[in-house]
From TrEMBL:
TM annotation in the entry: 6-29, 50-68
Keyword Transmembrane helix assigned: yes
Native organism: Strombidinopsis acuminata
Keyword terms, alphabetized: Membrane, Transmembrane, Transmembrane helix
Name of this chain's protein: Uncharacterized protein
InterPro entries: MAPEG-like_dom_sf (IPR023352)
């Protein structure tokens, strides 16, 4: 249920809002602020140098990250993890009341494990983005 809510927001609400803001910004800049010539020059440069794929590539990387974040946010509620907490940890002991030296590890099963895996996916993606975006643009 949480996943559906977030995906509706990501796939329906955000693209519609993005188009509304993009077109209204364009109309304000061109019609009210007289920047039509400047914007046309920029669009001509993008078209002349075939840079559309750069914008598409960066947009796709951003959208992919949004899907990964959506997955983590949907797993947050069933795991009972409120913000700003980023992971769920569990005390691991061989036996007895915490034995002598318990280990504290990330939970790996149940809703908490699902959330931890989703959250690690977000963090791993964020760590890789500085190298990924230039590689996507340049290849």
């Amino acid at each position: 249920q949480e996943l559906c809510k977030y995906f509706k927001m990501l796939v329906v609400a955000m693209p519609i809002a993005g188009q509304v803001f993009a077109w209204s910004s364009y109309l304000i800049l061109t019609k009210l602020l007289g920047m039509e010539a400047a914007l046309n020059t920029k669009f001509a440069f993008i078209h002349e140098h075939e840079l559309g794929y750069v914008f598409l590539a960066v947009w796709l990387v951003g959208y992919t990250r949004a899907v990964i974040v959506t997955n983590a946010n949907a797993a947050r509620a069933p795991a009972r993890v409120d913000r700003p907490d980023q992971h769920v940890y569990k005390v691991m002991a061989a036996s007895g009341p915490l034995k002598d030296a318990p280990y504290v590890m990330m939970a790996g099963t149940g809703p908490q494990g699902r959330f931890n895996r989703a959250q690690r996916g977000v963090i791993n993606t964020d760590e890789a983005l500085p190298l990924l975006v230039p590689a996507v643009v340049l290849t």
